[in-house]
TrEMBL record:
Coiled coil: none
Name of the protein: poly(A)-specific ribonuclease
Molecular function GO labels: metal ion binding; poly(A)-specific ribonuclease activity; RNA binding
Biased composition (Polar residues): 409-432
InterPro entries: CNOT7/CNOT8/Pop2, RNase_CAF1, RNaseH-like_sf, RNaseH_sf
EC number: 3.1.13.4
Record's keyword terms, sorted: Cytoplasm, Exonuclease, Hydrolase, Metal-binding, Nuclease, Nucleus, Repressor, RNA-binding, RNA-mediated gene silencing, Transcription, Transcription regulation, Translation regulation
Catalytic function, reaction form: Exonucleolytic cleavage of poly(A) to 5'-AMP
Sequence intervals crossing the membrane: none
Family: Belongs to the CAF1 family.
Region (Disordered): 1-21, 381-446
UniProt organism field: Pyronema omphalodes (strain CBS 100304)
Length: 446
């Protein structure tokens, strides 16, 4: 399948020829891990596909160069401008009940880290189109020493439900994920790097978290109105996202060759992350998500061969329940940065993971049980109705995705995490044309 059209505002360096080096990589690490001629020959097709993307973009690169240089002069590391609807959880919204620590708590943690409570902008490095390549180069230089990557995303809600017959609730929930990821755009990605001991990566002596801000237009892109209202109240500058946001396909090209993905030794950490990884797989593959969940998981393992989901780890942790902020409160971990912000959430995710590993797993997680498990996929977790009430294990899913009273047992009805708490609101700019999808009018939690 050819990649989706992305002729507008795409630019970036061409990919290296097979057997050659990509600019910015050390020779040993690149030759050993990234080049498809070496340890990953099966990934050559991915690189060839990405090369086609770069070829289409070269003509725009020269036209964009002067503009980019002018933009670079304006800003390097920008202040955080607001929050987002967290994607930790299917639909990525308020089921996590994320909140900001009160000022005294933030001041206490900031004092412990040797800084004031107001300089979280020095910890979270905002990345826009004008400093994307520079920050990706920084990450390439850090990932070998800090191979644990805590991640969170923000996106514009849930706008559609699949229609038809589904063999199981697990399949219905994957199809819900698939149709929404295919139609919507990611808004933010936050990543935080750490080493085996949980020590966070530093840049110029300062602990750093990266927050990538993607191009998103309220005029042209689909969204759920409640989501946008919440994002706007949190301080998201949609004008800036429209004018200076990162092109997702350029980001995908840089991510593939960054050393952050495709490697067994790089471990990704997330919380309730079906949608998180869905967006990243779509971005890097330049294709819609596979129709079958099994094929999606194959792609997921290719790009992210080693990943942990905190929500899945919680199954073995007594007294831990609820959303990410609930866990942080229970464990006495304070948040750095504003709520509903991908960078802040990724930092909190990483901190919780290492505290859990020490406190509940004696610093040794059994990879045969937990590695590669994503809560909400492949039958992991308990289903929820749109109002957040757990679904009757014997309930059936009708053609519109609504749970019905049980009549006969659902075949292969593994319990799986569904979409979280929602409130009905109109969606905007939503003209889904994919057969088998039906709008649900963007129901999001308040």
């Amino acid at each position: 399948m050819p990649p989706p059209s992305r002729a507008n505002n795409v630019y970036g360096p061409p990919f290296p020829q097979q057997g050659a080096m990509h600019v910015g990589h050390s020779f040993d690490r690149y030759q050993q891990h990234i080049n498809p001629q070496h340890q990953h020959p099966h990934q050559a097709q991915i690189y060839q596909h990405a090369q086609q993307v770069s070829a289409a973009a070269r003509s725009l690169q020269e036209k964009s160069l002067l503009s980019i240089l002018n933009q670079n002069a304006q800003s390097t590391v920008n202040r955080i401008h607001g929050g987002g609807v967290s994607a930790a959880g299917l639909g990525g919204v308020v089921t996590r009940n994320i909140g900001v620590a009160d000022p005294r708590q933030q001041a206490s943690m900031a004092a412990a880290m040797g800084r004031s409570s107001t300089d979280h902008d020095n910890v979270i490095r905002d990345v826009w189109a004008d400093n994307l390549e520079r920050e990706m180069e920084v990450l390439r230089g850090l990932v070998e020493a800090y191979p644990y990557i805590a991640m969170d995303t923000e996106f514009p809600g849930i706008v559609a439900r699949p229609i038809g017959k589904f063999p199981s609730k697990a399949d219905y929930h994957y199809q819900t994920l698939r149709c929404n990821v295919d139609m919507l755009k990611i808004i933010q990605l936050g990543i935080t790097l750490a080493n085996e001991n949980g020590e966070l990566a530093k840049v110029d002596g300062q602990v750093s978290t990266w927050q990538f801000n993607f191009r998103f237009s309220l005029e042209d892109d689909m969204y759920a109105q409640d989501s946008i209202d919440l994002l706007t109240k949190s301080g998201i500058d949609f004008t800036r996202h429209s004018n200076n946001g990162i092109d997702v396909y350029k980001f995908g090209e840089l991510l593939i060759t960054s050393g952050l993905v495709l490697l067994d030794e790089v471990k990704w950490i997330s919380f309730h992350s079906g949608y998180d990884f869905g967006y990243l797989v779509k971005i890097m593959s330049c294709e819609s998500l596979p129709k079958e969940e099994a094929n999606f998981r194959t792609k997921l393992r290719t790009f992210f061969p080693s990943l942990y989901d905190i929500k899945f780890l919680m199954k073995s942790c007594r007294n831990l329940k609820g959303g990410l902020q609930d866990i942080a409160d229970e464990m006495g971990i304070q948040r750095i940065g504003p709520q509903h912000q991908a960078g802040s959430d990724s930092l909190l995710t990483g901190t919780i993971f290492f505290r859990m590993r020490s406190q509940y797993f004696e610093n040794k997680i059994d990879d045969s049980v937990f590695l590669g498990q994503v809560w909400g996929l492949n039958g992991n977790g308990q289903s929820q109705q749109p109002n957040g009430v757990p679904l009757d294990p014997d309930a059936q899913i009708d053609a519109t995705g609504a749970p019905q009273p049980p009549k006969t047992p659902v075949q292969n009805g593994s319990e799986t995490q569904g979409t979280p708490d929602h409130t009905s609101t109109p969606m905007r700019n939503a003209t889904p044309g994919t057969p088998g999808y039906t709008p649900s009018f963007g129901r999001m939690g308040a």
